[in-house]
Amino acid sequence: MQKTGIEYLLGVNELHSREFLELQEQRRIHRKRHPTEIAALKCMDGRLHLPKMTETPLGIIQPYRNLGGKFDLGWPFFQQAILKWFEYAESKGRDCLILVTYHYSRGEKHRGCKGFAYDTEAAREFSRNLKAQFDADFGPPRMKQPTGLYAMHVGIETDWDSLILHDESGQPHDLADFTEISDDKLLELLCEWNPTIAERAPNVLEDFVPVAKGNIAHIKKVRIADRKPTEIDHQEWVAFLGRGADWLHLPNTALIVGPWQPDFSEPIRIAASLIKSNLDNNSADAPIRRHGPVLMTSGIYYRTDTAEPYLAARKSKDLRDEAMKIIRAEVPDLLPHLKILATTVNMNTRKFNVLKD
Question: In terms of domains, do 73 and 155 share one?
């Protein structure tokens, strides 16, 4: 019997939660060897799964997602989240590295970033300017403190899943160009490309070596597999709004919108429009035809013995209600087909709880 979209998502979350818990020891070992906290600002495109692309354990790279990877340190909620993350790292005596990303396809423009109307240069320029915000606000004299936050400008090419590391002059360095490289040579290149970080916190670049090395290994596997375009094209059927979706990174499954900007009506409209287009234009055996479109919302919590789970539930329901208002106004033709799933996510297990109301 064919599973519904919601049953399928419940099953995927169960598997990912189990994997997350099984990798607990690997995360502990990785953090002991490479203590730098790493986060990534990414587009809502579900293909951008950095743990898989870099062969690092789930939970090492903290994801922040929004349409096109568009963020601004002036947004109050986003600013608060970054500060909380940084302050947590400070309390542990760790430096922070934030990857400011954009994405594109080397083979076909329209497999690129919908959030920038497939304009790769516009996406690259936006992310370059966003990195400059971090450099300005967390740079000197902040870098003179015991721990610091450093930003790296990174492109993600989704045909081969390769990372493009921009040096401080803006020049790109595609990790797909490196088939075999030693850790020492890779660290030497990272220091050459990032002299400010190399001078102030060389340990940060040392901790990034396994991430870059993992990407080089992954690219090799992707190229050997020779993935077909249908495997990497847009076929998403889930619009996810909220936080706690780092388990939901199957290709062509979800468009993930973070609740970061003061007005998230535009990314919800675009996500809903894309899913309606997929419903209209894909063949009968496409994922969206099998599962049906789903709107999913989530609030996260860490401590179960406080008000956090209840506040997370309230947040998730509020996001659901706001998203439905936007879809009713902007993409009403999607409503007859849409299933709703409001959840909370326990970040210690990555397991979600379905909200009944």
Answer: yes
Cis peptide before 332 (omega within 30 of 0): no
* pTM, full prediction: 0.89
Q: In the chain, how many domains are there?
A: 2
Q: Are the C-beta atoms of residues 312 and 346 closer than 8 Å to each other?
A: no
The CATH number that applies at residue 132 is 3.40.1050
Give Cα separations from 222 to 112, 158, 164, 228, 299 (angstroms): 18, 10, 16, 11, 34
Please write the tens of the pLDDT for every residue from 245-273: 877 777 678 888 888 888 888 889 988 99
* Residue 65 covered by a domain: yes
For the chain, what is the total number of helices (H) and then of strands (E)? 11, 11
Task: Centre a 10 Å sphere on the Cβ of residue 258 and count the other Cβ atoms it contains.
Answer: 24
Domain extent, residue 346, equals 234-354
Q: Give per-residue pLDDT as tens, 75-106.
A: 999 999 999 999 999 999 999 999 999 999 99
* Nearest CA-CA partner of 187 in 179, 197, 176, 177: 197
The verdict on residue 244 lying in a domain is yes
